[in-house]
Design a protein that fits this description.
By secondary structure, this protein is an alpha+beta fold. It folds into five domains: 99 residues, Zinc finger, CHC2-typedomain (DNA Primase, Chain A), CATH 3.90.580.10; 127 residues, DNA primase, catalytic core, N-terminal domain (DNA primase DNAg catalytic core, N-terminal domain, Alpha-Beta Complex), CATH 3.90.980; 116 residues, 3-Layer(aba) Sandwich (Dna Topoisomerase Vi A Subunit, Chain: A, domain 2), CATH 3.40.1360; 68 residues; 140 residues. It has 27 helices and 18 strands. The chain has a five-stranded antiparallel β-sheet, sandwiched between helices. Strands 15-14-16-17-18 form a five-stranded mixed β-sheet, sandwiched between helices. Strands 8-11-12-13 form a four-stranded antiparallel β-sheet, covered by helices on one side. Strand 5 and strand 6 form a beta hairpin. The chain is globular, with a radius of gyration of 31 Å. Its EC number is 2.7.7.101. One of its GO terms (biological process) is DNA replication, synthesis of primer. Belongs to the DnaG primase family.
Length: 613
């Protein structure tokens, strides 16, 4: 049956390889249209402090916020890991896409039509768009099959038996993949769509023994998987009988990595921000049941264990994360693996563990007991250490030897807590003492003995301390960037184009070029955007962003003091170098060489504006 009434775009017809280049003026228009605070707030919880906003960095593990967003300059910078840039840079890093893909995503968000010019060499960009479009097509096709085909009557009955309303079916765009080897392949052929694109999306598979393709999904209830931009990035399918595998997802592709994505996040994000809490389940039907019963702040992993990328995505949406697990052995092991990940991300205080009654998952529990019972059961969710205690007690018991094994099994977690929160450590020891009946002092002594056996920790010495000259040169860049009227003064100094740090020297020239001959204050966001766009390397881009975040106040007096201090330091450096050369020549008793060095030293020192050495 040929399903009608779903659209196809030209980008996925045969001949899709034509590449596109986005005009620079469009990129500039998009930069000006995006509010970086609104953009980043979609994935990071920000709070206002003065003129800036701060939050926990989405790019590295931290407990104290060091991620800063400047609305005036339209940039972000993390003082913890050094990541920084503008709105386009953030989308590239956060979504793992190319520059062009990031621009296109922002263009869609701003409602800006991009009029591309043919040419360039970006076939991967167009392929990514084509993969997204063929995924959208597949989701619409399977949804149409579920609604209209007679062969889908069994799956419609299955949906009804599971208590899933038709409103929910439409909200999640559930579908049905027909029990045929070529149903979707034929749809592609009828519409002259390149099968190679659908293969790259993982929707069809190339045959081994003869030419052609066959459908990956057959006789399955289908679940479109969307990203935070609500684009269909993959599909998942569930069998209706006992055949294996029970669940089948699209393979990883240009647009889908299971370690970075969560099912239902497109629908849950707003509810998570509103409630400050997110529930994490392990399956499509669990997630749908949660949403049907009013728990709209729920997401599900996609056939994989929780990853660091998942944690960073979730912590940008909610302060508290509740992990929901079955009470069987597999569920408990999954919970312990998650705790290890959260420990590595220093987020142990932010999670709760909810173990459901034996024999139940969220779907079965809600169908049997309802939303009120689930709400009541959620009150019994445990903090990380409470969960670890109960797991250890379950394994070892509370007999005389069991208590010792319980305590010994929890020394490592206590040490992990101590590494970043001493108050939580004391609370954990108190809870363990109450549960086992062993005094806090005895537990403390046991921990001390264990730590003593391991030996002292080696101190970590920082080698990333900038020199005094480097610090002053960074200040010079900040001065010229934020107070451009000092540019002529610096251009007349002997240090113009002659900074010791090559990257900072290049950046000084770029700052002056961006400000132009007219040193009247340009909008700082405009200058920073130009600097970031023309940066040659990611390191230079990060440096620009870091220096742009300066909140120092500049005036004529402050600028003159900085220039005087820098000149003095540089002259001392020049003096020291020539003095060492002259001392060496004196030791060799080479009178001619010594005279020549003295003359060169005088010339070099005069060039710096100083007196003869």
């Amino acid at each position: 049956m040929d399903i009608k009434n779903f659209s196809i775009v030209g980008s996925i017809r045969k001949g899709w390889q034509l590449s596109m280049v986005i005009p620079k003026e469009k990129v500039a228009q998009i930069r000006q249209s995006v509010d970086i605070v609104d953009l980043i707030s979609e994935s990071v919880l920000l709070r206002k402090t003065g003129k800036s906003f701060i939050g926990l960095c989405p790019f590295h593990a931290e407990k104290t916020p060091s991620f800063t967003v400047s609305p005036d300059k339209q940039i972000y910078y993390c003082f913890g890991c050094g990541e920084g840039g503008d709105a386009i840079t953030f989308v590239m890093k956060h979504e793992g896409v190319s520059f062009t893909d990031a621009v296109r995503m922002l263009a869609r968000k701003c409602g800006i039509d991009i009029e591309p010019k043919a040419g360039g060499n970006r076939p991967g960009t167009d392929l990514r768009e084509a993969v997204l479009e063929v995924n959208r097509l597949a989701a619409e096709y399977y949804a149409a099959v579920l609604r209209r085909e007679e062969s889908a009557s069994a799956v419609r009955q299955y949906i009804e038996n599971r208590g899933i309303s038709w409103k929910t079916v439409e909200a999640f765009q559930l579908g049905y993949a027909p029990d045929r080897w070529d149903a979707f392949v034929n749809q592609l052929r009828r519409r002259n769509i390149d099968a190679g694109i659908a293969e790259k999306a993982g929707l069809i598979v190339r045959r081994d023994q003869k030419p052609g393709y066959y459908d990956r999904f057959r006789n399955r209830l289908m679940f479109p998987i969307r990203d935070t931009q609500r684009q269909v990035i993959a599909l998942g399918g569930r069998v209706l009988d006992d055949s294996k595998p029970k669940y089948l997802n699209s393979p990883e592709s240009l647009v889908y990595q299971k370690s970075r994505h969560l099912y239902g996040i497109d629908k849950a994000r707003n509810a998570c921000r509103k409630t400050g809490e997110v529930y994490v389940t392990e399956g499509y039907l669990d997630l749908i049941a949660m949403h049907m019963h009013g728990f709209e702040n729920a997401v599900a992993t996609l056939g994989t264990a929780m990853t660091v990328e998942h944690i960073r995505l979730l912590k940008g949406m909610a302060q508290r994360i509740v992990l929901m697990f079955d009470s069987d052995e597999a569920g408990l092991k999954a919970a312990l693996r998650c705790i290890e990940l959260f420990k590595s991300e220093k987020r142990l205080d932010d999670i709760r563990i909810l173990v459901l009654p034996e024999g139940h998952d969220p779907d079965s529990f809600l169908r049997k007991f309802g939303a009120d019972a689930m709400m009541e059961h959620m009150k019994a969710s445990l903090g990380v250490f409470s969960f670890l205690i109960e797991s250890a007690v379950r394994q070892h018991g509370l007999g005389s030897s069991g208590k010792i094994r319980v305590i010994e099994s929890l020394i490592e977690p206590i040490a992990a807590i101590e590494a970043f929160d001493s108050l939580s450590r004391f609370a954990a020891i108190r809870e363990l003492a109450e549960r086992t009946g062993i005094s806090e002092a005895a537990i403390q002594e046991r921990i001390r003995q264990t730590n003593a056996q391991r030996g002292p920790k080696q101190p970590v010495l920082s080698t990333n301390v900038p020199s005094e000259i480097n610090r002053l040169e960074r200040s010079l860049v900040m001065m010229l960037l934020h107070f451009p009227k000092t540019i002529p003064m610096f251009q007349n100094s002997p240090w113009w184009g002659n900074l010791e740090d090559p990257m900072l020297n290049h950046l000084v020239l770029r700052v002056c070029e961006c400000h132009g001959k007219d040193t009247a204050q340009k909008p700082i966001a405009e200058v920073v955007a130009a600097l970031i766009e023309e940066a040659d390397t990611p390191e230079e881009k990060r440096l620009i962003t870091e220096l742009s975040m300066s909140t120092d106040t500049w005036n004529d007096a402050a600028c003159r003091r900085l220039l005087a201090q820098y000149s003095l330091r540089r002259r001392h450096g020049v003096h020291a170098v020539w003095k060492q050369k002259i001392r060496f020549a004196e030791q060799t008793q080479d009178t001619e060489a010594l005279q020549k060095l003295m003359e060169e030293a005088q010339s070099a020192f005069r060039a710096t504006g100083g007196m003869d050495p």
